[in-house]
Structure formats: structure tokens, C-alpha cells
């Protein structure tokens, strides 16, 4: 175990200030977080599955918009008509400027889809907060023991953030990839091979990356309050809880 310096201190009976510190390096904090996830694997999976579903829906919507945008940019009037018949809100003819040149177009998400995505992400965040609060309740004695051994509030906070970060990244990655693949399959079913031929790979990658970032941020945001509750817990209160 590595040692280092901190601002923690206590006073002996003579009033002399004695500084002390026993801190764990970041690598050890990471090991503890991974072990905690393994011990509570099924409870962690509940949180991760909820995040996967929410991010998958977000990835599906974003990737589907990229598929439609690729077809629109193909310049094929027939594909444009197919998009209009599929329900996309597009003018019958592409817009042009004063010189008769075609203006760039893109297919965005509809207001209904945006609200559904927002609501699903909010529900996911609430589920993460609830699951993490339950995790804090289950770990009262563990937290109290760490604090009695000298763990600082920042160390407890770091553990919860690391656990949430790892779960959030894995869940968001799986969800974003799953949603993008589902959108591509849906595009193939609706538009045929043209959905892949005109697919903007760069835009698809940005959509997948955006979904991963959103999922990761939501996971961290959902654990902030439970982590602060755990970090501020007094050792005597945590140790008093009956198992």
C-alpha cells in the first residue's frame, strides 16, 4: 500500500498538531471499484441494462437520421420520393438558391422522437440514482469501516465515481453500437442496399460517439448525489447500521 501526504491531521493530548496520511493510489482505487462491481454484478447489471436501452434508442434515432441524410444527399429523385413516402418531412423538390444551385439538406429528428429520447434518458437517470442510493444503503458498514481506517471523503467519492464511470462507459458503448446496428438493419429493410451505399460513415461515427458521450455523462450525473451522501456519512452512523 502506498503512502503519501494529505491535509488530514489530529492533535495529541498536549495540543501539538500531528499530521498523518495513509492514502491509496489511483490504481488501488480502481482495483477496489472493479472488485465491488464483481461482488454486486447482478445489481450492477440492472443499472447497466437500463442505460443500454436508453442509449440504444438514442443511437437508433441518430443513426437512422444519418441513413436518411445519406439517401437525401445522393441526389436521386427516386430516393427522395422514397423518403417522403416513408414519412420524412421534406419538400417535394430540393431547395435551390437564386442561381439555381441546390442547397444542402439534412434529415433531422422529429419533435416527437426528440421528446421520447429525452424522456427515456430522464427515466434512465432516475433509475441510476435509485440504484446507486440502494448501493449506498447496502454498503453502510463498508463505508464506515473505510472511514474508521482513515479514508477521506474524496476517496469514497472517487470509488463511486469510478464504478459509475466504468459501468456508464461499457453500457453506453454497447447501447450505442446496438442502436446503430439496429438503425442500419432498419434502413436496409426500408430502403434496400442504397441505405448502405450512400451511408455517411463519418456522420454515423459522430452519432455513435455522441450517444456514448451522452450515456457516460448520464451515468456520472446519476451517481453524484448518492456518492456525496456516502462521502459525507459519519463513520459512527455507518457502523451503527445493523446488517
TrEMBL record:
It is found in: Cell membrane. Residues 116-233 form the ABC3 transporter permease C-terminal domain. Pfam families: FtsX. GO terms for molecular function: transmembrane transporter activity. GO terms for cellular component: plasma membrane. The chain crosses the membrane at residues 45-65, 115-137, 168-198, 204-230. InterPro entries: ABC3_permease_C (IPR003838), Macrolide_Exporter_MacB (IPR050250). It comes from the Bacteria. Belongs to the ABC-4 integral membrane protein family. This is ABC transporter permease. Keywords: Cell membrane, Membrane, Transmembrane, Transmembrane helix. It is a multi-pass membrane protein.
Amino acid at each position: 500500500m502506498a503512502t503519501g501526504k494529505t491535509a488530514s491531521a489530529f492533535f495529541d493530548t498536549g495540543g501539538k498538531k500531528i499530521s498523518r496520511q495513509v492514502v491509496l493510489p489511483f490504481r488501488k482505487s480502481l482495483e477496489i471499484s472493479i472488485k465491488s462491481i464483481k461482488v454486486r454484478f447482478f445489481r450492477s447489471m440492472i443499472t447497466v441494462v437500463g442505460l443500454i436501452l436508453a442509449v440504444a434508442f438514442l443511437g437508433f434515432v441518430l443513426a437512422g437520421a444519418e441513413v436518411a441524410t445519406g439517401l437525401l444527399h445522393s441526389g436521386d429523385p427516386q430516393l427522395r420520393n422514397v423518403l417522403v413516402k416513408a414519412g420524412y418531412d421534406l419538400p417535394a423538390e430540393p431547395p435551390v438558391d437564386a442561381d439555381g444551385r441546390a442547397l444542402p439538406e439534412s434529415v433531422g429528428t422529429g419533435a416527437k422522437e426528440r421528446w421520447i429520447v429525452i424522456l427515456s434518458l430522464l427515466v434512465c437517470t432516475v433509475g441510476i440514482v435509485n440504484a446507486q442510493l440502494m448501493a449506498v444503503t447496502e454498503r453502510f458498514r463498508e463505508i464506515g469501516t473505510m472511514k474508521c481506517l482513515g479514508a477521506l471523503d474524496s476517496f469514497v467519492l472517487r470509488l463511486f465515481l469510478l464504478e459509475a464511470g466504468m459501468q456508464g462507459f461499457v453500457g453506453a458503448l454497447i447501447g450505442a453500437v446496438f442502436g446503430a446496428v439496429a438503425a442500419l438493419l432498419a434502413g436496409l429493410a426500408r430502403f434496400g442496399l442504397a441505405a448502405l451505399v450512400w451511408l455517411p460513415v463519418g456522420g454515423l461515427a459522430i452519432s455513435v460517439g455522441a450517444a456514448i458521450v451522452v450515456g457516460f455523462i448520464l451515468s456520472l450525473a446519476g451517481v453524484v448525489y448518492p456518492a456525496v451522501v456516502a462521502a459525507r456519512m459519519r463513520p459512527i452512523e455507518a457502523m451503527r447500521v445493523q446488517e
